[in-house]
Structure formats: structure tokens, C-alpha cells
Specification:
The structure is a homodimer of 337-residue chains. Chain A has 337 residues and is of the alpha/beta class. Chain A has 2 domains: 139 residues, Nucleotidyltransferase, domain 5, CATH 3.30.420; 178 residues, Nucleotidyltransferase, domain 5, CATH 3.30.420.40. Chain A is 34% helix and 23% strand. In chain A, the strands form 4 sheets. Chain A has a 5-stranded mixed β-sheet. In chain A, strands 11-10-9-12-15 form a 5-stranded mixed β-sheet, sandwiched between helices. The radius of gyration of chain A is 21 Å and the shape is globular. Chains A and B meet through helix 6 of A and helix 6 of B.
Chain lengths: 337, 337
């Protein structure tokens, strides 16, 4: 049967899967992503992937023909098939021609590479909750804030393939310092790290007499999961952290909606596990923050304070969304040919 | 010869032109746009346009075959051909089926309608400085802030045709009150009205000992042109107004760049007449505000503090850009058929 290779290059591990057209993962394996201090060359990494793929294929009982390859990678350029200056990979000062190197090992098999969050958006479109939608956004919330934006049925790439960076829109010009060197990016508020910073902001500012699990944790020890667990148990301080995070997320989404007009926004990744803790207040604040053109109306044409765009959990949160996204990219490429 | 009808429905007047494929306006006329208190129905307005068009055609010496019609209108929906709840038209609580009514008068001739700023972007793409570009933004600066965003060669419409509202992205959550009911929209800082408000902010805050033409003008009397004229003569207060305006514009553009990754941003409309007074500081601040993925790099891969996206004046500022935009929409529709 025909399958594609889906490859998700993550911060510490790279996942490889053989995926059929319906999104079934027939086999998968994991290999370490080279650390930025490892000195491994792009050629060396592709060779490592090639060996892992060969080992994976040898274990399959069914005969599979690989017809296309899709790769999701940090700072991946769809146009050039390169990984460009990725901070956590050994090629931070380089443009690594990953797709081109791949083609050497698998002659005749098309290889497409894109940013990891864009791959997640394709996965949502082909295998998830965005099936049939032409305009939507996937927000991936983990350590950072990634996003993939689909407009008119196509991923938004921009002139050099790096469009769709919603996490680095500035929502507070005098706000938190961001890893990108600027201030007030959405990511500094809405991400695992941002959530923790907000917990410390709340502790620094409010007069909380109730006990809170968060008070016992140092900055180094506290995780987003600690905050989510506390909130799930009704910890008022943790609930306020989610409320503030939702307020910032809604502001960022209102801006993204004004620019790209999506039908829905899907939340994917680690923070999505907090479910309604994040989604319920985000919906509430988005109803307040959305521009009236993007709100529903009653029969008489009066504006209702309810955003048209739905905020939903990704349907791939319990599946291997990033891998399915890479596979979706590979299948999409086959359709184009 | 074959021509299209381009119609630009503005705040006070509606311009009508017969335009050939090369963008030559073979004939044009103007008719009043009905005021929101006029009580004129959509049918009545289309009849008024029909009569104006007939009069225009009767004056032409050359025989022209109208093959398509394009209309640029406030709150125009491309998908439905309607004008929806436009604040300055008599149908503020209605959805007016303008394209459909047009088709009754001109059977067999396709009619497309879109938002006025989106039409300007199409005009730039077909007749202006964006020829050959696939990703760019046109910002129309007049009383308000309009924008049309082209991604991958197509106008960005979103799920309901109202995407591309850059002027209503919030850049300062506690900022100025906006006509849309929210606070801190880009339009409240970057528009003729915003420029004036900034002049009063500067007068309220700074200790200016130098004389300034702005000090003599009341809020009702002052216009954006007064500020531009003063700045052109070196008035330090007026120059500071432009500097602050450019800073806010750059912040809004940096966000739009992060989301849509354009190759260039074109400035069109009344405020564009101030030329380098606005553009020079906007470029400077955009170089500071742009995310590093959207900055140039040197040969060694080091980031330069220079935005890749160019900030340019529209090439249609001296022409009838809005009318040419409506004509471009009509010609684009012909190409699709």
C-alpha cells in the first residue's frame, strides 16, 4: 500500500512515522534531535534519519511504498526546504538544506518541509476538526506559542515562508521582555513560561489570604502543570492566572481575526490539556474583544457581543498531531502533482 | 473596444469610470453618495448610478463594450456582493444587495463588489507598484485607516470577506477610544483624526518653548494638512507628531508582517501626500520593531536591524486609485472566467 513518511523534528526528539492516506500511523519510531552543541552536520542528521527509517521499515509486516515525505521543523522554510537559523539545532547560524539532502537518499520521492506549527495546521485541516474549513488558525501552546494560519484553503506563508507568527505579535508595547529581543509579544503571556510569569505577577500584586499551592513553589520548580492542577482544584490564585492568560490570548486572537477572518481557532499542545480552564475565559474575553464586523448579529441587524469565530480544542491533541501534520504535508504535495 | 465599469462608492461622492485593460480611464463622472439620513433605498441608489452611467456613455466618442463591473464600497462583502451595515450610508442596519440589483440593469455582465481598501490593493497589484508581487499590503490613510492584504497573489478575505482590518488591530490595550467601541486600535493613532489627537497629546505633555503654528489652532479647526504643512516647514512640534505617528504605524505593521509576511507595504491616500515626513520615521521604527525572521541578514547569517519589507508610497496616489482598484476587480473577474 501507499504511505508517506511524516517527520516531526522537535526540540529534543524527532518522530518518524509511516502514515496512510486516512491518517493511520502504520509504524513509528523516535530518534534524538541533535543538540545545538553536538556539532552534527545537516548531512549527518539526515543520515541518522535515513538509518532510523530503514530500521522502522524493516519491522513492518505489510509492504509499504513510500510515495512522499513531509517534514515539520522549527524555522522550516516551505519555499526552500531549508531549516534556517534554528536556535535549538546545531545550525543556528546556518541555512540547512534538509529537503535537498533527503532527496539524495530517496531519489524520485518528493520532500516538503515546513514550520512545525504550520504542519499542525495542515494536520488539523486534513485529519482534525478543521476538515471542510477554508479559513482557520491553529495555535500550538507549549513552552512557546506557535501558529499556523489557513486562508482560503491554503497555508499562509507570506513572501519568504515565515508568515503566521502570531506568537510574536506585540500586544503590549511596554510589556514583558521576549526571547526575540522585543517586548510584549503574545508568547510572553500565553505559553507555559508566560503562565508561570503570570503566576508570579499575581503573587506579587494581590492580597491573597487563602492558601494556594503556588505559594510553596519556587520560580525554577513551578510548571504550567502545577498551575493547571491547582486551578482544577479551585485554587483562586491559579484561576486568576488562567483568567489573565485568557484575556491576553483573546486580545491576540481578536487582532488575528481582524487580519485573517477565520471561522475557528483550534488550540493544540501541552496547554490545551487544561481544556475549559483556558477555553471558557478565552471565549468570554474574545466576545468582548472582537471587532463588531466579526461578531454575530440578531435578525434586526443589531450586533451581539458574541464572536463569530469559535475557539475549539484541536481534535489531534490526543493523537500525534505534529507527526500527522507532517504526513498531511506529504499527502497534500501528492495531490498537487 | 472592451472596457469595464469601475465604481468607487466614497463617503460623500461616488466615482464612476470606464476603464480599459491597460488602466486608461476613457471617461469618468461623479454622483453624490446618499447620506445616511437621505432615506434612499439600495434600489434607488442603483437606479441613480444607472442614469449616471448612461449619461457618461452617451458622451463617449468611441464605441465601448462594457464587459464587467467592479465596485469598491465601505463594508462591501466580496462573497455576497452586498454592502453590510455601513455607518455612513442610508442602510446602516441593513444588508444591501448592490451587486444583485446591478445585474438586473445589466443582464449578463458580471458584477463584483468589495471593500474599498481591498479594491485599492487590487489596483496596486494590477496598475501600481505591486505589479509582480504576490505578498503585499496596501494601507489607505485618510480620515480612517483602511487596508487590503494580498497573500500568495490573492486578496485575503477570510471566512466572511471582512478580513484585512489592520486599522482595527489593537496595539495599546489601554489606549485611545476608537469608533468601533474598543480601545487602542491602530486607526486611533494613524489616520487624519489620530494625527490631530497626537498633536493635542504633544501639546498637553511637552514643554515647547519654540513657536508652533499648531498652538494657534483649535481642535475643530486643525486638520492633518495643517500638521503636515507645519512639519514640512520644520515646526518641531509637528515633526514630533509625525514621529509618534510613525512609531505607532511601525508597531502595527510589525504585527501585520509577523502574520502575513509581505514583501512591501504601500501607503495610499490623503496622508500619503506627506511623503517622507511619515515614511522616513516609519522605516526607521519598523527596522527596530520587526521580528528578526523578517529582518535582513549579512553573509555570515547575522541579523541586521533592517526589515525585509519595504515601506513605499502607492504608485496610484496621483491617479484615481480607488476607481482603478474597482476596475482592477472587474478585470480580475474577467480573467477568472
Amino acid at each position: 500500500m501507499q504511505v508517506v513518511l511524516g517527520i516531526d523534528i522537535g526540540g529534543t526528539t524527532t518522530k518518524i512515522g509511516l502514515v496512510d492516506k486516512a491518517g493511520n500511523i502504520l509504524g513509528e519510531t523516535v530518534t534524538p534531535t541533535p543538540a545545538n552543541t553536538s556539532g552534527i552536520s545537516p548531512e549527518g542528521f539526515v543520515l541518522q534519519l535515513h538509518d532510523a527509517i530503514a530500521a522502522l521499515r524493516s519491522k513492518l509486516t505489510e509492504v509499504c511504498e513510500v510515495v512522499s515525505t513531509g517534514i515539520g521543523a522549527p524555522n522550516g522554510s516551505y519555499y526552500k526546504g531549508t531549516i534556517e537559523y534554528a536556535a535549538n539545532l546545531p545550525w543556528q547560524h546556518e541555512v540547512a538544506p534538509i529537503a535537498q539532502l533527503f532527496e539524495k537518499y530517496y531519489p524520485g520521492i518528493p520532500v516538503k518541509l515546513t514550520n512545525d506549527a504550520k504542519a499542525a495546521a495542515l494536520g488539523e485541516m486534513i485529519y482534525g476538526g478543521a476538515r471542510g474549513m477554508r479559513d482557520f488558525i491553529v495555535v500550538t501552546l507549549g513552552t512557546g506559542f506557535g501558529s499556523g494560519i489557513v486562508c482560503g484553503g491554503a497555508l499562509l506563508y507570506g513572501s519568504d515562508s515565515f508568515a503566521g507568527e502570531l506568537g510574536h505579535t506585540i500586544i503590549n508595547p511596554n510589556g514583558r521582555h521576549c526571547g526575540c529581543g522585543r517586548r510584549g509579544c503574545l508568547e510572553t503571556y500565553v505559553s507555559a513560561t508566560g503562565l508561570k510569569q503570570t503566576a508570579f505577577e499575581v503573587m506579587s500584586a494581590r492580597y491573597f489570604t487563602e492558601p494556594s499551592a503556588l505559594k510553596r513553589l519556587s520560580f525554577l520548580d513551578m510548571t504550567a502543570k502545577d498551575i493547571a492542577d491547582a486551578a482544577a482544584q479551585g485554587d483562586s490564585m491559579a484561576l486568576e492566572v488562567f483568567d489573565k492568560t485568557a484575556q491576553m490570548l483573546a486580545l491576540g486572537l481578536a487582532n488575528a481575526i481582524a487580519i485573517t477572518g477565520p471561522e475557528a481557532i483550534f488550540i493544540y499542545g501541552g496547554l490545551a490539556k487544561s481544556g475549559d480552564l483556558l477555553l471558557a475565559p478565552t471565549r468570554k474575553y474574545l466576545n468582548e474583544a472582537a471587532l463588531k464586523n466579526f461578531c454575530k448579529r440578531d435578525e434586526k441587524g443589531n450586533i451581539l457581543r458574541e464572536a463569530k469565530a469559535q475557539v475549539l480544542l484541536s481534535e489531534l491533541n490526543d493523537k500525534n498531531g505534529a507527526l500527522l501534520g507532517a504526513a498531511a504535508l506529504a499527502w497534500e504535495e501528492m495531490e498537487k502533482r
